[in-house]
Specification:
Number of domains: 1
CATH topology: Glutaredoxin
Helix content: 40-55%
Order of helices and strands: HHEHEHEEH
Strand content: 5-15%
CATH class: Alpha Beta
Structural class: alpha+beta
Oligomer: single chain
Largest sheet: 4 strands, mixed
């Protein structure tokens, strides 16, 4: 396998059971809220997926509205973006968020964990 193909395989979103234990995978969420700021490349990754699939997500920009930073700190203890609130439950890490959204809205079947 080529160097670049190996690198790409390492970058693909992978569902890891321990990071997803607290989330529902049997039905779509009622509310999705993305804490983000536009110059963050990891936020751009998530937002591109959301736009591509026209997903029902509410955006909260930490740079435009400082109160959102305080909300995020209260929810997670940090101001890391992107953070997707899934029915009130925070999910961090862009690869995890994209993997979750892909599974729920694109695949639509029970998750297979290693």
């Amino acid at each position: 396998m080529s160097f670049f193909k190996n690198l790409w395989q390492g970058l693909k979103p992978v569902v890891n059971a321990s990071r997803f234990d607290d989330f529902e995978f049997e039905k779509p969420p009622v509310e999705l809220v993305l804490y983000k700021f536009d110059t963050c490349i990891f936020c751009q990754r998530v937002m591109a997926f959301i736009r591509k699939h026209k997903l029902p997500v509410t955006y909260r920009d930490l740079r435009e509205h400082p109160r959102y930073r305080q909300e995020l700190l209260a929810l997670t203890g940090r101001s890391q973006v992107p953070c997707l609130l899934i029915d009130g439950q925070p999910m961090l890490e862009s690869a995890d968020i994209v993997a979750y959204l892909h599974y729920i809205f694109v695949e639509g079947k029970k998750i297979n964990v290693d």
